[in-house]
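Technical annex, item 7. During the second reporting period the consortium partners agreed on a shared format for inverse folding records so that results from different sites could be compared directly. Each record opens with the tokenized structure and is followed by the designed sequence. A conforming record, contributed by the partner at site C, is shown below for reference.
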């Protein structure tokens, strides 16, 4: 078996962001609209700070407006809610994301439910979750959308394929399973209580790993020729006291068996922000009753 096709999410996301920039320029020229994305960051978590900074930079590069709200780690839930309410009411803001995780003293659920469903560009609001599962128009979570774009790019039509999703979180596993189902796959969702996970994974034409356990999925769990999408981002110790990022799939083994595979880093990761920008563009168009410009 020859090595798998590498699914280059970094290059795909760069093209997607360029196309979004062109579409934003069309929107401005034809309707005078500039999509605005607000990112609310509570506290000083270094990973969240880097992530929000990247979002803000890429928002501006795509010709959109970025609104940053930084709140101290000890902000009260009531004050955070007030900020969300202000952003809900601001007509220049079309997309709102509250960076998760929030500090322990703030419950995530009421904060997510406070975001105007039309501005919920992360797609985490219960009404958007319901829209996804019932096949209605809504805003779709970004990482799952990015995974589907990569799969369609490499496989084309997914109809009839067996898809196994390992992980059942609300932000990754479950929405990916919904999207695969909508694309006419036969979908199985696996989790920590699944029996014979290796055997189940071997039945998959499409294997999605969204677990958060470094290199858990081995080469002999993979059906020869399968498409493997590795959502996991795990930092492990490397030589010389350094650290490096790996996925949930043992890449070195899997690349010899799979038909196509996403690397970590450079696979799914870059797609998330690109899809967030596209969701903001879509949200802006819907809120203003105008057609979403073609890429
Ligand atoms: P969660 O911790 O919320 O969910 C993990 C899931 O994996 C759970 O459903 C859990 O099962 C399942 N699981 C854990 N251990 C096992 C096991 N041994 N066998 C089978 N299933 C298992 O994680 P997320 O969904 O939020 O994230 C998953 C990974 O994706 C992480 O590495 C995260 O960093 C990454 N990620 C990457 C993003 C990107 O942009 N590329 C965006 C979001 C996340 P159970 O429900 O039974 O506990």
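Designed sequence (site C submission):
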């Amino acid at each position: 078996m020859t090595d798998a096709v590498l699914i280059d999410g970094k290059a795909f996301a760069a093209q997607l962001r360029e196309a979004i920039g062109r579409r934003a320029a069309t929107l401005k020229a034809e309707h005078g609209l500039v999509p605005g994305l607000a990112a609310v960051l509570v506290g000083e978590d270094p990973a969240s700070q880097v992530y929000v900074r990247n979002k803000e930079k890429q928002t501006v590069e795509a010709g959109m407006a970025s609104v940053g709200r930084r709140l101290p780690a000890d902000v009260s839930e009531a004050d955070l809610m007030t900020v969300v309410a202000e952003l809900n009411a601001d007509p220049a803001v079309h997309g709102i994301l509250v960076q998760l995780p929030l500090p322990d003293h703030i419950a995530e659920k009421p904060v997510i439910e406070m975001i105007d469903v039309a501005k919920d560009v992360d797609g985490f609001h219960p009404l958007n979750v319901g829209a996804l599962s019932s096949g209605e128009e809504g805003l779709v979570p970004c990482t799952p959308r990015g995974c589907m774009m990569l799969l369609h790019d490499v496989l084309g039509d997914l109809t009839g394929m067996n898809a196994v999703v390992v992980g059942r979180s609300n932000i990754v596993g479950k929405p990916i399973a919904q999207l695969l189902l909508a694309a006419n796959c036969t979908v199985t969702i696996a989790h920590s209580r699944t029996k014979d996970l290796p055997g189940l994974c071997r039945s998959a034409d499409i294997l999605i790993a969204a677990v958060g356990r470094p290199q858990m999925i081995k080469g002999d769990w993979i059906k020869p020729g399968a498409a493997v999408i590795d959502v996991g981002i795990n930092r492990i110790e490397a030589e010389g006291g350094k650290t490096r990022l790996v996925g949930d799939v043992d890449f070195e083994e899997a690349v010899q068996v799979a038909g196509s595979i996403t690397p970590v880093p450079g696979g799914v990761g870059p797609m998330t922000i690109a899809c967030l920008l596209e969701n903001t563009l879509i949200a802006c168009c819907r809120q203003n009753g105008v057609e979403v410009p073609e890429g």
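The two ends are 37 Å apart (CA to CA). The domain at 142-270 is CATH 3.40.50.720 (Rossmann fold). All partners now use this format for quarterly exchanges.
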